[in-house]
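Appendix C: a fully annotated inverse folding record. The material below is reproduced so that readers can follow the format used throughout the book. The structure is listed first as tokens, followed by the designed sequence.
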């Protein structure tokens, strides 16, 4: 009996070892700890990577340039971060391409309490030519204001929206752009109610913050790996839309958020509006190209198709994979 038990235990370990050996390793870099990255964390929590044959490692790389370097060198296989870094790198001849997207980060133009008209006022951006700056300028023009003429644009050097908002509340400027979560955090901390002057999503001013990029050789030669990745993340999106309590728990764990209202805001602004099919978005890439061309004229005649390839997602769509998740 002891020999039988020992043999069974040995067989079990061999089976576990074989299963582990069959998982394909994949390294995924993500830029920010924010709601737009939720599919990556849900897939990890629900063991969807393993379900689709992957041994996934998630790596936080805040800098877009550093992430691109890691991608090109083969240290990571996929980047979940702003497509602007991929576009610039590809424009310089590096073998990188946008293959999908979890959508845009929601931005709103907010002002200090009592400020409703920005004419003659100071509006803060991160840095001139950035994605935030371009979105801000487009929003102002939609409101009938000419940037640098009707309003003064202040480059704060602050990429974090919550820090810009706090600077605004200190009187350094009158308005800025922020995400719903950063706006709520600032309002809670300062005990004020900010004025929301515009919703960039409603204005169809999109960004590429949720884009997914890889190397050209991975897209060409390791399509199975990308297919498995998109299957895991797409099922994660489907689960997240059906199981809100699970997602709120993951948000709290990954983003260190405990306040129920903030949890709800993060969910509603990300997974609540996230597309079920993670196609790369031509309209967002087009706006990003226009933003980059604002400071680099070599991108003026470029087209979104030069920087994106949604063939993996399209293939899954044709096979009915997304329909099965509903």
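Designed amino acids, in order:
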């Amino acid at each position: 009996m002891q020999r039988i038990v020992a043999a069974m235990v040995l067989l079990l370990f061999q089976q576990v070892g074989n299963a582990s050996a069959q998982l394909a390793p994949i390294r995924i870099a993500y830029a920010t700890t924010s709601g737009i990255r939720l599919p990556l964390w849900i897939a990890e929590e629900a063991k969807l990577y393993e379900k689709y044959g992957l041994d996934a490692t998630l790596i936080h790389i805040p800098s877009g340039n550093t992430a691109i370097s890691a991608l090109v060198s083969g240290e990571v296989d996929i980047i979940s971060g702003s497509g602007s870094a991929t576009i610039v790198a590809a424009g310089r001849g590096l073998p990188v391409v946008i293959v999908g997207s979890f959508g845009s980060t929601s931005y709103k133009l907010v002002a200090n309490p009592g400020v409703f008209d920005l004419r003659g006022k100071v509006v803060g951006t991160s840095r001139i030519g950035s994605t935030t700056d371009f979105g801000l300028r487009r929003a102002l023009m939609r409101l009938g204001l000419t940037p640098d003429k009707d309003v003064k644009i202040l480059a704060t050097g602050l990429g974090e929206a919550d820090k810009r908002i706090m600077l605004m509340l200190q009187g350094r400027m009158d308005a800025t752009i922020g995400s719903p979560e950063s706006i709520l955090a600032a309002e809670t901390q300062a005990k004020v109610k900010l004025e929301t002057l515009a919703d960039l999503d409603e204005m169809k001013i999109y960004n590429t913050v949720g884009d997914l990029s890889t190397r050209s050789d991975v897209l060409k030669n390791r399509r199975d790996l990308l297919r498995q990745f998109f299957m895991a993340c797409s099922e994660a999106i489907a689960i997240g839309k059906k199981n809100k309590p699970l997602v709120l728990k993951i948000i709290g764990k990954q983003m260190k958020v405990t306040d129920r209202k903030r949890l709800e805001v993060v969910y509603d602004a990300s997974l609540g509006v996230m597309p079920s099919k993670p196609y790369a978005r031509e309209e967002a890439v087009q706006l990003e190209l226009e933003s980059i061309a604002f400071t680099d004229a070599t991108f003026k005649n470029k087209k979104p198709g030069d920087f994106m390839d949604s063939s993996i997602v399209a293939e899954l769509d044709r096979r009915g994979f997304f329909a099965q998740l509903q």
